[in-house]
Structures
1.
Amino acid sequence: MFRTIFFALFVTACAAPTSQVGDPPPAAAGGGSAAELPDFTLDTIDGERFRLSDHVGKEVIVLSFWATWCMPCLAELPHLEELYQAEKAQGLVVVAVSMDEPTSVSEVGPTARRLGLTMPVVLDTEQRAVRLYNRARSAPFTVIIDRGGRIVSSSAGYAPGDEEALATQVRALLGGA
Amino acid sequence: MWWWGWALALGQPAAEVVITPPEPPLPFQYELTLSSTARWQLDNGDRTTPFVRDYDPTGENFGDLVSTLGASLTYDRFLAAIRVDEAWYLHQPIAAMGASQLIQDQLTDRYRDQLRLEYAAVTYSDPDVEATVGDFYVTLARGMVLAIRKVDDVGIDNKLRGGEAKARLGPVTAHAFAGFLNLKNYEPGTGYAYRDPNDLVAGGRLEYGLGRYLKLGTHAMRMRPEEGVNGSNIVIDGYGASLELPRPVPWGSFYAEVARLERNAREGGISNERTGYGAYGALELQLGPTTLLIEGKYYDQFFSILPGGVVSSERQGINRLSEPPSAERPQALLLSNETVHGGRAKLDLRIWPELTPYVSIGRYRDGRTIDSNITSAFAGVRGRWSSGHASVESGFRGQYGSEGASLGRVVRTDLHLVLDVAQELFGPFSAELFVSGQRVEEFKPPDDVTAWVEGRAALSLLSSDRWSVTGAWEIYTKTPDQFDVHYLSIAGQWEFGEGNFLRALYGGERAGLKCSGGVCRFFPGFEGGRVELVFRL
């Protein structure tokens, strides 16, 4: 019986109209606005509080989910820092969301400083941001939110050269504001 | 039938950079995510003749379809989310006629079809208040007393089903929660099925913070498992306090936590009490381009909490509900983290932004397994250039007897190497080489030595159009008489749309212990084909 129920769900999910190139991505397809974007508040490694809703609707936001044991993440973060340095005056906020477990969270601060990160680095040991924006817990995983508070892209993984496409996309959003 | 859905998914165009114009907002936002893995395991690598008494059919010639379907709806400050997990098995392995009891036991509670509402929650959040009714994860401070969490790499998804609330009133944050333990009820790697224990867990934390200068916190929890059939009654209490100086000066930070665990049990008319203590501290100093991390721990009978109120000294218990910091590599196999004291220093250099070496040296005294000393040292360097990056790390961990007849005797040693190199090639293409391996030696009295090598080397071709192809070789020499030594596989991945994946693998993957987030779990070998789809609507 339950097989039938689940396969009905499965087939329905796969057969439902899916987004095409040019359509808004999934999270925006429901009409996400600043008020509707799920909010989270997390502590930074410097003891400050980062609240997503303080920035939504005002700045272009890049959420970068990473962990100290994730090698592609450590390769990507310096590029994100360069982008943040270059564009923060134009209204870009890059947030590095650490998915480290309590067992390795002590590594987050030293790693961020070794990489020279000045962007907000937040600790998400209770998966408050992960369960909202990165349910598959991919690392690295990048979410871009425009000034209208809409998710315009989310992607997993990093390969050399990806940072150029990301910078192009972010600059287009900043310039189009 | 389900291939129809997959075929539709395959028909989606590849991702492009798309900037969409603003749309009139709707009052709600939704998301539907389907993650589904279909596989057929051809062989379990067991070289014993099939269908004889001692032949273990576990993991042999069967198929499964393991899926999760998640849905969420956001309205104003409310978020409602559910997740349904499903596991469906085809051609379930069965024991041969007259199979040994051991083999029959191996197949108990395994390969059972499942359909469960694994996660359901409604969350309210505003700048000062967060409240959840339903399932939630909770970690108190750094997990010494309680860490109920999700670790995907090893298939763990522990939750509480109940309610929690967190309120921020100026510098004070208060967090309270209560709920019944909700475990993930099947383990995809091995097909094991678990039932949810009726364990009630309640607790809270109070924290006072002054920005980067100070954060003081105290917390407590109580766990009361369901009363046993023999009338057993167990209560576990945990208390802790933490002091953090996040960044009072530009060149340093400090964290310290102390905790106490008590287990009071009345089982079979006999009272049994157990108490454990733990203290952990971390000091970070930044001196110019150098960052120094000094970690120390002192754990005395600081047991792990497991479902049902069971406590354990072992670290391989997969559903541990507390996880004190290890002050070691997250990937290290720690046989015990219960009665141990010691620490380490880790030095990170940033001489050039493009080249960052680091070194870590640790020394511990383990008083549980065999009274022993542990020395752990590893070093690495990460580099990047305009079109690529590389990192390499190598290290040693040795455990030696420290008392009596075992003084100086080697208990266990391991050497590890991790290498990762990625280089942009031409056009949209780049390549990545990843090598990870370790050589382990275990010694048992009087002179029994087991040595083995386990590792993986993978070469990937990646495209910025979001597809990749990977060829991999794996080796596992611990049981060459029973299982294969070498494993080859070819895998492909395609990301389509936004955050959607199609992955396929054919070939073999070695068995072995995998450690992530302080949790180690033995994964069986795999020989066959696997297709995985992650699809978001």
Note: The helical segments of chain B are 2-10, 101-106.
2.
Amino acid sequence: MHVPDGFLDVPTSVTTGVVAAAAVGVALRGARRELDDRTAPLAGLVATFVFAAQMINFPVGAGTSGHLMGGALAAVLVGPWTGILCLSVVLLVQALLFADGGITALGTNVVLIGVVGVVVATLVVRGLQAVLPKRVGLVAPLAALGALISVPVASLVFVGLYAVGGAAPVPLDDLTTAMLGWHTLIGLGEAVVTGMVVGSIVGVRPDLVHAARRVLGTRTVELRTPATEVPA
Amino acid sequence: MRGVPTRIVLVGLLLVALLLAGVVSFYASGSPDGLERVAEDHGFIDTADEHATAGSPLADYQASGIEDSRLSGGAAGVAGALVVLVLAGGLTFVLRRRKPSRG
């Protein structure tokens, strides 16, 4: 969903640029709490993985493709603030070196792919973790669900931006239907990839996964001592 | 820690990323993505400007100067992955909380 230059007018692009810059600024502070000697290298590799996975467009039918956005994956693996930073680095490199996503649209893309993806997935995962049993095995399915929802939500935010500052007059109901339809299909792919990657890491090292640590931390250790037999 | 050493998890993630960017990317779908498809169907794809960095040596995920498109795409992907690793890894390394130094 990388937005090129020209789709949105200048005021809208400036506005998303300001929002993106503010989000990155807050994320720079928030990420300090998420990163330590153990999680910092993982965060760098999560960004690398997201960049690589975004190169893999998968078909979603009728001459259309999609690729992982990665916001949900990064948020679950390394935390929301670090996730926003990871996605921002990926989008910056793509725009500057790979001509993928416009330069003036960089703020728009950071908002849509970085901030919206991370925030939606974080709300879904944390919201459900609060009400569901605290089980590590639920982290990957919840991450997949967050991923599934995050993609169509990001497409709706694009429609909102287009309604305000789109370059061409397009009937909004048609645009909404088309964007939601394709991005729900892409969201299914996002869910599968996110679930598989999170599941793989949770399977071997749940303590490395940000969203799993919350569950691991609350797990109580039950000490069962054999009942001493009372002499009759 | 318990289970698989952290180093193995990190190296595994790096290898998968390099494999995706360097090899699997060649087999990725070339169809327009969801947004491009919608822009085509609704007549606003032409409002996209030519990209300001279209002349970059890595533009459109092809390394300029390499004829073979498989090698060119793979080289561009690996180069991009390593740039992201250095930038994101460097940033998170600087931001991390240090272990309290002993002594």
Note: Chain A touches chain B through 75 residues (CB under 8 Å).
